[in-house]
Write a structure and sequence with these properties.
mainly alpha
């Protein structure tokens, strides 16, 4: 009776793309691979990092996490639980952990700057000294 009563005629397929749509759709690009420390499971990629830098980074992360935890937990204990001594103590320890984070960074930065200054200087003339070495007096100008 109706032309729509036939098996496949008039049906709309949702979710399936037509041949024309598949031809016009661009190929999906692949993301580049990223090397991480744990590719092999034994942190072999960590050997690319300077040991002093890695040590300072790990120490600073631990200090910073402790600082954030204690600086936030101390006032909450004080306010919500009424434990003023414990809250104030945790807050003070958190502040000290924050100071230690900064000291760790400054020590790493200072050692890095010193090693860069030593690399730039060949040992004959101190860095920043443009004068001639001692014992080599320049000849007086002729008049």
């Amino acid at each position: 009776m109706f032309s729509l009563d036939e098996d496949d005629e008039g049906e709309v397929s949702f979710g399936e793309s037509s041949d024309a749509e598949r031809e016009m759709t661009p190929d999906i690009p692949k993301a580049p691979s990223v090397k991480t420390f744990d590719d092999g499971g034994d942190f072999e990629g960590a050997s690319d990092v300077d040991p002093d830098t890695l040590r300072a980074f790990v120490a600073a992360v631990i200090y910073a996490n402790a600082a954030v935890l204690l600086v936030s937990l101390g006032p909450m204990l004080w306010f919500f639980q009424g434990r003023a001594r414990i809250g104030a103590g945790l807050f003070a320890i958190g502040l000290l952990a924050g100071v230690r984070t900064y000291q760790t960074y400054r020590a790493w930065r200072r050692s890095r700057d010193e090693s860069a200054a030593n690399d730039d200087n060949d040992g004959s003339v101190p860095a920043g000294d443009d004068s001639a070495p001692a014992g080599d007096d320049p000849a007086p100008p002729k008049t």
